[in-house]
Design a protein that fits this description.
The longest helix is centred in the N-terminal third of the chain and has 20 residues. This protein has an eight-stranded mixed β-sheet. It is globular and about 55 Å long. Helices cover 47% and strands 14% of the residues. The protein contains eleven helices and eight strands. It binds nicotinamide-adenine-dinucleotide (NAD). Nicotinamide-adenine-dinucleotide binds next to helix 1, helix 4 and strand 6.
C-alpha cells in the first residue's frame, strides 16, 4: 500500500497524477525544477478541484482534504520519504536517466520507481539505477483525471511484487490497466502516434485543411478528437520525441517524423501548452 507518493515533473501529466493521488487519500510530494513551476502545477490542480466543486462533483471538504495532502518542492531530496515515485518529466531519455540516477541515491532501497514515459525503454532506464526489479512503466493518459487507462509496462527485470503494487496503486487511483512488454512506444502510442504523424503528412502535402482532417477522422472513424487537435493536447514536442523513439528503436522508415511536425517544434509551436500548434489557444488553453 502506497502511503507517500513522489511525483517528479509538475507539467500537465505530473500535476494530473498528483491530483488524483491526493484525491485518493495518498500524501503527495510534487517536484519540478523551479519554485515557479511547482507553484504553477499546484495552482492548476487547485483550479481543477475548484471547478469540480462548482460542478457539484466533489464537496468543498474533499477538495480541502486533497489540497492538504499535496506538498510541492524543487528540492528532490524531499522525496526521500516517498515509498513510490512516478517520473513525469520531459520525454528525453538523458533527462530521465539522470533524474533516476539521482533518485536512486535519495530514496530508500524499497521505493519503487515508475516512469510515465510515452515511449522510452523502461528496461534501459531501470539499468541506470540499482533497482531494476523495483522499476516499472506506468503510462497515464491525458487528461489524467478523466482518462480511464493506465498502460503498465514491464521491464526485463521488473519483479512480480513490483507489478502487483503498481496494479494496486492504479486501481486505488480509479484506473483500468493493460499490461504490455517493453518495446518502443509500447502498445497505445505504437498505434496512435503513427496515425497522428500521418495526419501531419496529409496537412503538409496540402491535401486537406487541419479542420477537415480532424472532422474527417471524428465523423468518419468515430474518434472523439481529431488527430491534429489531439496532437495539440499531447504537446507537439512530446509527439516528435515519441516518433523519434519509434523511428530509432524500431529502425523502420515508416516511423520517420513528419518534417512539418519538426518545423513546428523548432518554431516553439508546442500546441495547447504554448498557445499555438495546429490551432491557436488562449492563456487558459481554450481554442480561439
Ligand atoms: N502529454 C501527454 O499527452 C502525455 C501522455 C502520457 C504520457 N506523457 C509523458 O509524460 C511526461 C511529461 O509530459 P507532459 O505532457 O506532462 O510535459 P510538460 O511539458 O507539460 O511537463 C514536463 C514538466 O517536467 C519538468 N521537468 C523537466 N525536466 C525536469 C527534471 N529534470 N526534474 C524535474 N522536473 C523536470 C518541466 O519543468 C515541466 O514542468 C513525458 O514523458 C510524456 O511523454 C505525456
Amino acid at each position: 500500500m502506497v502511503e507517500t507518493l513522489g511525483v517528479v515533473g509538475a507539467g500537465q501529466m505530473g500535476a494530473g497524477i498528483a491530483q488524483i493521488a491526493a484525491q485518493a487519500g495518498i500524501n503527495v510530494i510534487l517536484s519540478d525544477v523551479s519554485d515557479d513551476l511547482c507553484r504553477r502545477g499546484l495552482d492548476g490542480i487547485r483550479r481543477l478541484l475548484d471547478r469540480s466543486v462548482e460542478r457539484g462533483r466533489i464537496t468543498p471538504a474533499l477538495r480541502d482534504a486533497a489540497v492538504a495532502r499535496l506538498r510541492v518542492t524543487m528540492r528532490l531530496e524531499e522525496l526521500s520519504d516517498a515509498d513510490f515515485v512516478i517520473e513525469a518529466i520531459v520525454e528525453r531519455e538523458e533527462a530521465k536517466t539522470a533524474l533516476f540516477r539521482r533518485l536512486d541515491g535519495i530514496c530508500g532501497t524499497d521505493t519503487i520507481f515508475a516512469s510515465n514515459t510515452s515511449s522510452i525503454s523502461v528496461t534501459r532506464m531501470a539499468a541506470s539505477t540499482r533497482r531494476a526489479d523495483r522499476f516499472i512503466g506506468m503510462h497515464f493518459m491525458n487528461p489524467v483525471p478523466i482518462m480511464k487507462l493506465v498502460e503498465i509496462i514491464r521491464g526485463l527485470g521488473t519483479s512480480d511484487a513490483t507489478l502487483a503494487v503498481t496494479q494496486d496503486l492504479a486501481a486505488l487511483l480509479g484506473k483500468e490497466t493493460i499490461l504490455v512488454q517493453d518495446s518502443p512506444g509500447f502498445a497505445v502510442n505504437r498505434v496512435l502516434l503513427p496515425m497522428i504523424n500521418e495526419a501531419v503528412f496529409v496537412l503538409q502535402e496540402g491535401l486537406a485543411t487541419a479542420e477537415d482532417i480532424d472532422t474527417g477522422m471524428k465523423l468518419g472513424t468515430n474518434q472523439p478528437m481529431g488527430p491534429l487537435e489531439l496532437a495539440d493536447l499531447v504537446g507537439l514536442d512530446t509527439c516528435l520525441y515519441i516518433m523519434e523513439v519509434l523511428h530509432q528503436g524500431l529502425g523502420d522508415s515508416k516511423y520517420r517524423p513528419c518534417p512539418l511536425l519538426r518545423k513546428y517544434v523548432d518554431a516553439g509551436y508546442f500546441g495547447q501548452k504554448s498557445g499555438r500548434g495546429f490551432y491557436l489557444y488562449d492563456e487558459r488553453g481554450k481554442r480561439r
